Amino acid sequence: MIIAKEHFRQALEHTPFHARLAPLSQTQEWTGWNGYQVARTFDKLANEYFAVRSGCAVMDLTPMEKYRISGAGARAFLDRLVVRDISGLRPGRVTYVVWCNDDGKVIDDGTLFQFADDDYRLCAQHHQLDWLLISARGFDVSIEVETHEVAALAVQGPTSWSVLAAAGIDGLEELKPFAIAELSCGDIPVTVSRTGYTGDLGYELWVDPADALPLWDALFSVRDRYDLHAMGLSALEMVRIEAGFIMPGFDFNTAEATIRNGYDRSPFEVGLGWAVSLDKGHFTGRQALRAEKARPARRRLTKIVVEGNKPVGAAFIYARRNGRQIGEIKCATWSPILKANLALADIELANGRLPDELWARIEYQRELKWLSAWAACHATTKPFYLPEHRRATPPPRY
Amino acid sequence: MTERYDAIVIGAGHNGLVCSTYLARAGRNVLCVDAQDAPGGMAAPRRLAGDYCFAGLAHTANPVCASIRADLELERFGYSPGAALDTIALDAHGRHLAFAAAGVSGAGLPEGDAAAYPAFRRRYRDFARALQPLFDNKPPRLKHMGPGDRGTLARLGWNLRMRLGREAMYEFLRVAAMNIYDVLEEAFDDERLCGALAADAVCGSAMGPRTPGSVLTWLKRLYDEQGGAAGMLSANGAGLVSALAQAAHAAGVTLRCNARVAAVLTEAGTVTGIQLDDGTTFRADVVVSNADPRATFLDLVGAPRLDAMFASRVAQIRGAGTVAKLHLGLSGLPEFAGLEAQALGQRLLVAPSMRYVERAFNHSKYGEYSAQPVLEITLPSVHDATLAPPGHHVMSVAVSYVPYALHGGWQEQKQALADAVVAQLAHYAPQLESLIVAREFLTPADIEEQYGAVQGHWHHGELSLHQSFMMRPLYGAARYDTPLAGLFLCGAGCHPGGGLNGLPGRNAARRVLERGAAS
Predict the structure, then answer these.
(1) Buried b vs exposed e over B329-350: b needs ≥16 C-beta within 10 Å?
(2) What angle do CA B507, B509, B512 make, to 5 degrees?
(3) I want to staple B5 with a disulfide (CB 3.0 to 4.6 A). Which of A74, A167, A184, B31 is the partner?
């Protein structure tokens, strides 16, 4: 058998938007995501960041893994898959979900779209097909990978609604957060969901790959009136930390990729306890999570503000200056809008509680000389930055 | 109003009856249900053409574990182990070998082999005995060990090092993971001797003599022989099954036959009872399943009520049956060339060399049957004339290496294989065909259909190393309790596995009582 495929000649595939993205890249900072070539930055990180926070940023989401889940047993399958009670999910709505392995450790998180009674889409950052197929045993459900059949753009920022309206997508003014609408942009059919990973007002657009470039052109036709910017992964990393969103596989090891005992994390340990519904009936990991809930929490991925303005990279967390090491920073960013060092840190708890003091030992360079300093840290349970306008319906018009 | 019990046992096979009786004797109100019209499972007597009686799928059995006999007073209910049988390895030229307690003998057997055999056998029985702590107890947990688990492992270590002695321990460690072909080839020259021993080592498994792990399956077989060599299983309704059923009745077990379980009922991850296929429900906080673990989890509970990976691992349990059963009603006693009539009461084996056994196995690997299969033959009516009409006899043949999933399906080929087996038998007993009055052939597919054993596997899953001890039937359910609170397993799919010894049933009952005491 001859397999007439040429894809292996190219290390990374181009997304359907590549023809427009490539000319915008001044930095040529590309990386891989699920086999696709994606940008870290296009021109200046600050421009992209401020586009999300004070204008509108557009990001290519095509490499996001997308699974079409349908059939008479789809709802029951999803209910057993995810740890959250999804009984409130209705057609035309999206919900955030987390799924675990038998031991109650997080495999991944994602967004679950319901299009019709027996028709869903699950979006996840990492490949999930094997786990979905393992979970499908005993259910009347069909699972299809549609990652490559659906092109997707995130359009995020305070002016995103105004941009979309100006670009010709009507009917978004009453679209509530986590709602889906089947609309069009000119003669391009577009599925729009009011979802995102930035903590700001924002939408995600889902189209046939053949319509990808016309849609891009329609959006960017309003660039003379709005600060519209292509955004890469680096700016996304900044805004998602500001919004307090976690990234499985980066902030903690995902369960199916974990080899060493104790290196995986439960939803409770990564601050997703609110997405666990132990009383909803059976789901994978329920027994393990019930047992875990009955014990004092041992660790938690904690949002912390690190004092000072020295850049925070990888750093250990201590209970006191020169005290016991109790954790480590998993991701950090300087927040231009809050003028603060923000981080997510995996911290051991004592009897389920954080210690009264938290200190980070920061290693940093000054003119290439390594220095270290102690910085006090302050834990918070709230997202660092969540503007009110993100939820306004209709959103503010610009 | 649904009836409520302390415990419900699904399946009145011997392990289900043992488990029920232990629970009832500990004061539990027990219901034992079975889909068949009589208890006994695969050891329940069955009739052919009305007049010919067979012990069931099993025809020989080792004595039931002595402690179970004593605990359940089985002798009081009429149980006695069948007289120990010799094994006769048939030879096409009439130069048969006889294996008896005293040793092995036969025409043309090299003196060296005859002399080496008793010591060889003693050594491997010692190995099997050294493993007793593993075989006899619930399998120890290696992570989060309890005191009992430490005790089991400590006794195992003591047995291997101190009871075997240094030299024998080294030999054990050398051979434990080998295949029986290499071990026997080192030890003996005679092909017939090796063939017969190799056939026993892999009996009932999807293994050839050259398959790794076939020493371990042989040690398991030798372990089962500790309480006595295999005897004929009584087929007249007065044997093991009837004693167990009476013991269960006397202990107060409610036995309900013709009751096929459709589902194990659960609420929020906890067992609440069972539902029969006619819709009747019975309530209990404890349900013990003697069914194949695959059927228990995937059919009676259902994957959706289990964690995803656990359900997936259940579905991957290896266990496609490889043994078919031929039952013949004969108008007279067949003559076997070179064999005296009195020897016909023994266990006859067709496995003339290890290469023969390995070749027969090869076919089954590829979904084919061998026209020259390995056969285990008994004539129970030689011991008990009531099993057949006057002057008539019954012959029971276990045919090894018959694939569950035959290429092309069983519909067309079933009778062809039965004919091939009869033709094979005729090499040794030339006038057999003329004596056949009635014939019944059960493929693994038939066994699945009639007995509910998944894929027709007698042991509810291969007894391979990766499905033994703390991995039998699978990690997460290897100590008789399961991820579903209140659901227990007590069948051959559990440690220590198949055979009519009652150990899984007893161990499961102990576990139920232990868990009850803990909560």
Answers:
(1) bbeebbbbebbeeeebbbbbbb
(2) 110
(3) B31
Fold assignment, A297-381: Elongation Factor Tu (Ef-tu); domain 3 (2.40.30)
Give all strands (DSSP E) within A4-105, no chain letters.
29-33, 36-41, 56-60, 65-70, 93-100
Mean pLDDT for the stretch of residues B359-368: 96
Q: Which residues of B touch A138 (CB under 8 A)?
A: 298, 302-304, 311
Euclidean distance between CA atoms A99 and A80, whole angstroms: 9
Chosen from A137, A141, A256 to mutate, greatest number of chain B CBs within 10 A:
A137
Which residues from A are below 8 Å from B483, CB to CB? 102, 287
Contact state of A287 with B483 under an 8 Å Cβ cutoff: yes
Q: Is the pLDDT of residue B489 over 90?
A: yes
| A7-62+150-231 CATH, one of 3.30.1360.120, 3.30.70.270, 3.40.190.120, 3.40.50.300 | 3.30.1360.120
Of A80, A131, A279, the CB nearest to B304: A80
Mean pLDDT for A138-156 is 97
Whole-model pTM: value is 0.93
CATH of residue B243? 3.50.50.60
Tell me whether residues B303 and A138 touch, CB distance under 8 A. Answer: yes
User: What residues does each domain of chain A span?
Assistant: 7-62+150-231, 297-381
CB nearest to B269's CB, from A76, A137, A286: A286
User: Per-residue pLDDT tens for B239-249?
Assistant: 899 999 999 99
ipTM score: 0.93
| Contact check, Cβ <8 Å, B269/A282 | yes
CA angle B373/B379/B382 to nearest 5° reads 160
State residue B518's pLDDT score. 56
Closest by CA to B459, choosing from B152, B13, B125, is B13
Q: If residue A106 lies in a helix (H) or strand (E), which one and from where to where?
A: strand A106-116
Per-residue pLDDT for A336 more than 70?
yes
The nearest alpha carbon in chain B to A280 belongs to B268
Q: Is the pLDDT of residue A242 over 70?
A: yes
CB distance from A284 to chain B under 8 Å? yes
Going by their DSSP bridges, the two strands A358-366 and A316-318 should be labelled as antiparallel
Residue B499: the pLDDT is 84
In a domain, B509, yes or no: yes
How far are the Cα atoms of A18, A209, A220 from residue A216, in angstroms, in the given order? Answer: 10, 11, 6
pLDDT in tens, A52-93: 999 999 999 999 999 999 999 999 999 999 999 999 999 999
The answer to whether B308 contacts A81, with C-beta atoms less than 8 Å apart, is yes
List the single residue in B268, B269, B312 with the smallest CB-CB distance to A137: B312
8 Å CB contact of A138 and B483: no
Residue (of A217, A156, A222, A208) closest to A16 by Cα position: A208
Structural domain of B256: 3-82+234-317+453-518
